[in-house]
Amino acid sequence: RVVPCADDAEDARPLVSCGQPVETTLIVHPETRQPVSSGEIGEIWLAGPSVARGYWNRPHETEQTFGPPPFLRTGDLGFLLDGELFVTGRIKDLIIIDGANHYPQDIERTVDASHAALDAADCAAFSIEIDGREALIIAAGVPTAFRAQLAAIHQAIRTAVAQQHDLRIHDLRLVKRGAIPKTASGKVQRRACRDAYLAQELRALP
How confident is the model at residue 158 (pLDDT cuts 50, 70, 90)? Predict the structure, then answer.
């Protein structure tokens, strides 16, 4: 849920509006496909002249990506407030542990602030399933100059994530700087990082 709070609240998170949507916009529960109540975060659905009808000769993909006509399921999470649209994250990146939602970018910012060696732009937080439950995995790049401080960096990250998010890290993988998969524009590819981790291709620093 979205709860307005004082600017100096300890748990406040500033969010920047995308402005007033040009297209028809619904905020929908991604599983039930029903509009959510005011103040709730859901999937952003769009409809308008710029939205296609579907994929050519690909009915399954069309059903998955396009909601009931004429809406497009964006895959983005967000909410509407005073007629303005706020985006909070991507459904595919959302980490759900013990029924609680956690945005990876929030965890990555916590990692960034935990030690001088770390940078949120070279860190990926994601989850994997272990024995039917989701477990948190964090991969973070460490510059060569800080290789002697790996134990201290490990401890700093685990402590910060536990204090800020009440989460236990199942596996913390410190890797060489630049090993985290990114797009051509420099955005962290969390799904690619997860795939590399599962394929045992994300090697930890010795």
Answer: very high
